[in-house]
């Protein structure tokens, strides 16, 4: 899953990026509203952490522009402002959640997990498909109760497919959500990682839809 952090404090931005990456996310960062708006408008993020007090364009305006242009990714507002009127303005502009500074990283991660699972229509941190279970809170994958050890990229790929269970996901979409903006993306590498996942999972859940991409579903679901 790929996230955007828009935060003008360089130390906090680095802490956020490191903490989110340690939790298994791919993270891009912008340090002003103009760059943040551009990235959110042109790149397919699964979620955004957005500060309100940004230079060039304030965070509320950035959010309003995204929503006006049809950008629907979940947005968590992160700000030192804690007046109820500003919170209301943020939610009315299209924010999905609000976290005031200072904050604990564990709470931010929990809120991000909640936003992502709600956006995908899931009620809990445990995502299931037949014998496959992913605990997104613990970053743990099991098949029939047996733990499966995955690399970070394999885990990101599997989690993205699981969040979009039953839908065909193209190779291009996968590369856009697995790598940050500076990575030299090659959709052919997706085939390699899908092959590795199939061998490790040892169950027929990741199906190839010729000419379109991949779909994670139980065989009886039809795909």
TrEMBL record:
OmpR/PhoB-type domain segment(s): 124-218
Protein keywords: DNA-binding, Phosphoprotein, Transcription, Transcription regulation, Two-component regulatory system
Residues carrying 4-aspartylphosphate: 51
UniProt xrefs under InterPro entries: CheY-like_superfamily (IPR011006), OmpR/PhoB-type_DNA-bd (IPR001867), Sig_transdc_resp-reg_C-effctor (IPR016032), Sig_transdc_resp-reg_receiver (IPR001789), WalR-like (IPR039420), WH-like_DNA-bd_sf (IPR036388)
Any one Gene Ontology molecular-function term assigned to this protein's record: transcription cis-regulatory region binding
Response regulatory domain mapped to chain residues: 2-116
GO biological process: regulation of DNA-templated transcription
DNA-binding region(s), residue ranges: 124-218
Entry's Gene Ontology cellular component terms: cytosol; protein-DNA complex
Keyword Cytoplasm: no
The protein's name in its UniProt record: Response regulator transcription factor
The organism's taxonomic lineage, starting at the top: Bacteria, Pseudomonadati, Pseudomonadota, Alphaproteobacteria, Rhodospirillales
């Amino acid at each position: 899953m790929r996230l955007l952090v828009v935060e003008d404090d360089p130390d906090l931005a680095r802490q956020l990026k490191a903490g989110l990456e340690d939790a298994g996310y791919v993270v891009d960062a912008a340090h002003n509203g103009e760059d943040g708006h551009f990235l959110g408008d042109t790149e397919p993020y699964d979620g955004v952490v957005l500060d309100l007090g940004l230079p060039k364009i304030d965070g509320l305006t950035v959010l309003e522009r995204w929503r006006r242009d049809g950008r629907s990714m979940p947005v968590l507002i992160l700000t030192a402002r804690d007046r109820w009127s500003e919170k209301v303005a943020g939610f009315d502009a299209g924010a999905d959640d609000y976290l005031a500074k200072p904050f604990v990283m564990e709470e931010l991660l929990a809120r991000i997990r909640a936003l992502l699972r709600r956006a995908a229509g899931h009620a809990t941190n445990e995502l299931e498909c037949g014998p496959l279970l992913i605990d997104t809170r613990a970053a743990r994958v099991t098949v029939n109760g047996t733990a499966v050890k995955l690399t970070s990229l394999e885990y990101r790929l599997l989690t993205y497919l699981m969040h979009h269970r039953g839908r065909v996901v193209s190779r291009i979409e996968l590369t856009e959500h697995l790598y940050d903006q500076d990575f030299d993306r090659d959709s052919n590498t997706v085939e390699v990682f899908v092959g590795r996942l199939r061998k490790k999972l040892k169950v027929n859940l990741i199906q190839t839809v010729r000419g379109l991409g991949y779909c994670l579903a139980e065989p009886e679901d039809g795909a």
